[in-house]
Write the structure tokens for this entry.
Amino acid sequence: MWRSILRIGILLALSVLLAFGAERFFFNRLALSGTSGPDAASQPSITLSAETLYPNSQGFALENGRLRSISDQATIELAIPGGKIRQVILSYQSATDADIYIRSTEPPQTDEPSATLSEADLWIADQAPRDLQQAATVVEAEVEQVTLVVPDAGFILDAVTLDRSVAIHPQRTSFLAIGLFLLGLLLSGSLPFLSTPTHWFLLLGASLGVWMMVLSPLQFLGWDEQIHFKSMLVRSFPDVAWLTPAAQRLVDLDLPPADTRFDQLQTAAWLSQLDEPSLATPAVQEKSWGVHHVPYLPGILAFALSRWLGSSLSSAILLARILSLIIYLSLTAWAIHLMPFGKHLLAVYALLPTLLFQATRLTYDTVTIAAAFLFLAALLDEWANPDRLLSKGRLILFTAAALVFNSIKSVYVPLVAAAYFIPSSKFISEKKRLMYWIFLTVLIALILSQVILPGLLQPDPGGDARVSGTSVSGQLAFIFAQPIAAARIILGDLIANLGTFLLGNTAVLSYAYAGTIHSANWSMAIAVLLVILALMDQPNRDQDGLSRPALPLSQSLYLAATALISLVLVYLALYISFTPVGALAVDGVQPRYIFPLALPLLLLLRRPGIQHTLQPATLARLTFLPVILVNLFGLYQHFLVPFYR
């Protein structure tokens, strides 16, 4: 035990030292550590006033100690003392989000006479948000001079700061340290408290998920996240909801663009000023309480608790995301623990970038996906233990999980119907089995009564308000009039896109509006890993209960049929509500709708006859190393670099 603790301490210390070394000597290589002399070249930061800048400007007028651009393409030549610059900070005022450019000229990298200086110009595009008074542009170059270019007239400039001070970036340094520490833990050998897939899932999910939240900007990035945010915030009030200007700007996705750590700090301070309760306006709660609010409960509780504690809106959003991640990790870890086989498969799939990203957003998908994992794991556990009686606790688990993952999208109800096929040996009598069937039928009827049946019995004449040309009643009329044509459209679209939605880049390597990891190598590696784990994930046969016989053919067919029917229902629902009448393809299908169905489809590949002799620690390394690497790569490229340079 003490040796393990000592090893962890050494790994942590080495990781922190390496991270600080990389931060100081690589990322701050263009910085000056101190003032070694009185001249400007030795100063780590120099602020130039408008009066100082005016002689080197074109297209600017000096008015009351400020520079105002009076023509398009106004410029200011900025001499760089010492020939090194890390970032340029502008102090300004602007009525609009002003475009700005930093142009630096480097000597041409050729000896040919035809080479010109313009060929070596480097342009850096940025914005000076109207809501802020300061903005930073990262240059990170060794040049003698840069040019500030303001394309439009009316921009008011107070001062320019040329910054090359040593600035230890806490987010970047911590990110490097945590990444190195996780890799060190995985590669250094087995540890007593990291001996199962469940333990690794919790460690990696918590570490990577927390850093995804830390590196997230203030603006919303998830699919329709602003809609879910408003629903949670409004529902957190007992009666009339009151939205501050800050909350309204978040709902409207109207935040200043911020792509540096300096800009993020400025934006946070600005948003805090707008989060003033005395300026709040009322918002009507559109829907009464219902089962469809269950997945929103973590966010609702977080906003209510934060308001009671007097916390800021930014703190409330962070708390809501933390609760969302905790629930996702808890339910999924429970599912991994229950899985009779495929534990590593579920752990890897649940840690893929898109799923982990969703677990840190404000959305109902987090809870519904985790509940679907838990329901499937409990069902497989019952199928794999036909001689064990069905307990009341397991029945309660079935019921709760089924209600949660069908509370908003009842298209997954066929998966619940798979519970009809539990072996008869799990009941002490036919009467008990009949009562179970009746209970399950009532449960399915309750789920259907929430969404699907009302939509069919009383169809809304309009469709989704976000898409023009949609009509629920019109699409239903087309389906009933031409069922074969509608079936061809739905099934054709499903077959054409199923592979992409299951294992494509947009399915497992997407961060929604933060971008997608566009790498064929990564997507191929993840797909191969998932298929291999589906084929042979049975380590520690006695210790972890992973040595189970193959599912009977009948149960495999039940699982496949229910998953495929749910897929068809997903497409059908979006064809009716989101697709314009007369369209020849289904619009609005997103990979996140397929996540609850991917696991049962992958498990159909399982072949218990495929054996391996890998030790648990070796299997863990081979399993989780790609997951750690792809998540670190995605966090760096899509969060740290775009938002916290």
In short: The chain has three domains: 2-28+169-188, 40-108+116-163, 338-639. Residues 31 and 360 are 35 Å apart (CA to CA). Residues 40-108+116-163 form a domain with the Jelly Rolls fold (CATH 2.60.120.260).
